[in-house]
Amino acid sequence: MRFNRTQWLAVVATALLVGVGCGDDDEPTNPATNNETNNTTNNTTNNTTNNETNNGATARLQVIHNSADPAAATVDIYVNDGLFLDDVDFRTASAFTDVPAGADLEIKIAPGTSTSADDAIATFGPYNLAADSTTVLLASGVVDPTAFDANPNSESTALNLYAIADAKEASAAGAIVAVFHGVTDAPTIDVVLNNDPTLKPVDDAKYGDSTAYVAFPSGGAVMDVTNDDNTARIASFGAAVPDGVAVVVVASGFVNATQNAAAPFGLYAFFSTGGAGIPLPAAARLQVIHNSADPGAASVDVYLNDNLTLNDFAFRSATPFITVPAGEAKISIAPGTSATVADAVFNQTATLEGNKTYVAIAKGVIAPADFAANPEAESTALGLTLIADAREAALDPTKVDVVAVHGGTDAPTVDLLTGTSLIFGALTYGDVSAYTSVDPGSIPLSLRVTGTEVALGPFAFDATTLSGQALTVVASGFLTPGDNADGEALRLVGYTAAGGAGLVLLPALN
Asked: Which residues of 166-179 are buried (b: 16+ CB within 10 A; e: fewer)?
């Protein structure tokens, strides 16, 4: 027989007693990964529940399809062998719906081309849903685990039903979010908000785990998905959630999408109204280096989109790489004494693409007329050099990857050599080289004016401890300080992904 929507949802609702714990009605304020909610099934129906069902008791239910297996991309759902839903797509959800509570029901999932329940690829139940409960049920996993990468924690990746108990349909104030780890080939993960390791709504979550609801920062947040000790970043995202809503964010797809021939990893937001999951936009990674040798800019404030990001940022220092929203980014530089972005002496808008990594280098001087002109007639006004496709680590962990930037306003076009071998050639002020890989150890460096054989150096740079790192090397300062307000003399300074004070590679070149 054919089931109607309410009957089928009652069946699925029953499935939600999958060992989830129930909380009180207050919105939680502290993250708590629910590590024990997903693998236990309650198959008993008691007389009280049945009596309540007969008296019209109901529960609230939302169902989310999160199986990234191509064999389950579109599925049919059967309840007690009757077809209820036809052609349900991956990454879609039902709205929260009233369903009868207290019934023994069996759920079968079949390919979208199925002709009967006999074509099922997975069977679940019988289930029972408690009266007055509110639950989110997620279908996750793969049909044939042997055809996919194993879970790093040896968790079962077979197609299964997982539950978030005490689910929320709305928030009394602000926005609240629960997170489900539904990526079969991902390790234990953390989610860090706004580059602050103390803001960690997801902590040590394994595949199949879900969190309690937590308050989401007003105005949005950037987030990094990392391994459990935060030593490796899997992906970065940005999101803004409207006030008053409750959202389930699902880690979905595969980390190794090529190997698994399916959807790539992403975070998807599901609202209580159902429909297709909304992908959270990828965020960008950014490092900022202060290389303006103007003594008047020895300490600056840096604003990102009019918000103070770096206070009293010193010359020849760098931030670590941080996650920032993708899109148009307004970068403003103001004196270290600034009160607001209105005090900025420089503004520039850059387009930062999601899933890309950048280094932004502040260069030049505030009043070029007060300083020596560039020999190649390049503008020396305060500005930014933006390195796209920057690296946070060497591609080969046994090497050091180096990119060079000419940031000496009064210096001519130069070459950088190691011994007698050219590393970078013909760099004019403002130029950025390609990356090159060098062996760690004691590296002899020298600098020469392009077209001549006269080199300044050699100088030994100890890179023994930099194996596996990426280094941004900047020509920094003035070739003739006396002609440039007695600013810092020209040096080569290197910056790792960790930021901080620059590493002086060459001493003063005068």
From this structure: bbbeebeeebbbbb
